Amino acid sequence: MEIICPEKARGVDHFAEAGIPVYFGESVSRIDRNIRQLIRERLSQFQPDILHLLNSKAISNGIAASRGFPVKVIAYRGVVGGVSFLDPASWMTYLHPRVSRVICVADAIRQWFVKHRLFHYPPEERFITIHKGHDVSWYNPAPRHILQDEFGIPSDAPVVVSIANYRKHKGLELLIESAQDWPDEAHLLLIGNMEGSPLQGLAKQSAARHRIHFAGSRSDAAALTGACDIYALCAYKKEGLPKTVIEAMCQGVPPVVANSGGSPELIEENVSGLIVPPQNLQALSHAINTLLQDPPRRITMGRAARDRIQKAFAPQQTVKQTLQLYNELTGINSC
């Protein structure tokens, strides 16, 4: 195995410790001569069987660089939609005939691809689902007092948290509106870049305005989530397998998610979380209130959420399925 990645990519030190050769490079655009030259050099010298590409720019450049090499191309897709037969960029990536398989991080993504094929192209077997595994030991919640120290939230107040950089489809307006329907002691903590959005203005007009807090972008967002009581994701489109929901579940924080994208795949309904119809204020408020008003159920559901990730989304399962795909494409048993 060899890896090409940016010099500051996470995991670089781990690759070196494992004895994996790392070459520094990054696709700055879909047509990047420098990265294409580096990929061709490594294909020529290392002669790999698989070229595994992890974002659209890398896919475009990797496909072009691999021309003339007998290498199988695997592409990764992490969001629903955004691919079109009318878009030339899509033909440079996921629709290109050189792509042997597209690993979809959620089955919702695979189903979207299959549904939107044109005259049965690409073939259905090109798209497979491999969930991205997480180890619960990767996450440690922040101490509860940080919520009071930084945001003035009383130590005994239940806190609903959501993480997102503002996009309309994230549904944060609905979450702010929902806060008015919660018990008076419940607070909402919003983490992420929301500058220039209408959210602050909406919060100021809310009857719950004194209980809505904006934390901005935080490097400790996952840990802050672990200090809260409920995680809410209201996104109604474009979601893959949302990492923020997984981070919450790993720390025993029960999630309430919209039935969109891969979010429902993470949850056993009414066991390890609650699923609500997208863009439905009444259903969202009811689900959150159900947990706000029942602390023992929150704790039980949070434990079930943690167990769900531990058993069904373990990294070992991701590795096993990926190696199985490599074996299938190459005929080489690497297990």
From TrEMBL:
Gene3D superfamilies assigned: Glycogen Phosphorylase B
InterPro entries: Glyco_trans_1 (IPR001296)
Keyword flag Transferase: yes
Key word Signal present: no
Residues of the Glycosyl transferase family domain: 148-307
Record's protein name: Glycosyltransferase involved in cell wall biosynthesis
GO MF annotation: an example: glycosyltransferase activity
Keywords (A to Z) from UniProt: Transferase
Organism: Desulfurispira natronophila
Superkingdom of origin: Bacteria
Any Pfam family matching the protein: Glycos_transf_1
